[in-house]
Predict the structure of NUDIX hydrolase.
Amino acid sequence: MAIKQDIRLAVDAVIFSFAANIKKVLLVQRKNDPFKGQWVFPGGFVDDGENLETAAIRELEEETSLRMENLSQLKAYGDPGRDPRGHTVTVAFIGQVNADAVKTKAASDAEAAKWFDLNDLPQLGFDHSEILKDAIKFFKK
Amino acid sequence: MAIKQDIRLAVDAVIFSFAANIKKVLLVQRKNDPFKGQWVFPGGFVDDGENLETAAIRELEEETSLRMENLSQLKAYGDPGRDPRGHTVTVAFIGQVNADAVKTKAASDAEAAKWFDLNDLPQLGFDHSEILKDAIKFFKK
């Protein structure tokens, strides 16, 4: 197409576990800059010709080994300054599993993958604190 | 950024009017292919460095002369086949005005801009029928 854009499209997966009344969220530790060493939602860039939800499911599995059948779309985040590498829009998806019933293992460009209690979260990279707030609101609806 | 993607990012604005119990939606007639002559929501491509909502407000004004202060985000639509020109993801926004209290006038790449009764709609281009269904559900919440 003739349209030239310098914008990247990404997806993120916010996965909650509400088992045994302990509210947890699945995070991965970044292996590379930006935000190297910080915790973020599993996610990454959409492939050409790939559906948004498919991309979120793929990135989730690639980074955490967790395979989800479907995810719900939360919202698109498009602040041009949200990624220091350049204008990147991410579409966030959310899902729910029982953390005790699934295995997760860091892979791809994730240094680690870990469930965190929502009351004891590390500092999140990018704008993922804002995404988390919206995701929690979504589940309270 | 090193990431190469062949994906375009667009926005669309679904503007309803519920005045005097007549439910209307604002559509524009496409001047160019694809879907030349068909009716669609005002919209277009996001500029580099531009916020999604800002882009939707800008495209709405460029194509219909209607100036909205803010819009709500509905959803991102990313089926790779939704635009025959190539993989294009659109983020749809919605807003509400009183059609009798505002002026609209086709401009930019819109052949015409017109309010349509929701009970008497033309065939919509792209996947805009699906977007309209979601937008109607959103307002019924």
In short: Chain B has two helices and seven strands. Residues 8-140 of chain B form a domain with the Nucleoside Triphosphate Pyrophosphohydrolase fold (CATH 3.90.79.10). The helical segments of chain B are 52-64, 128-140. The radius of gyration of chain B is 15 Å.
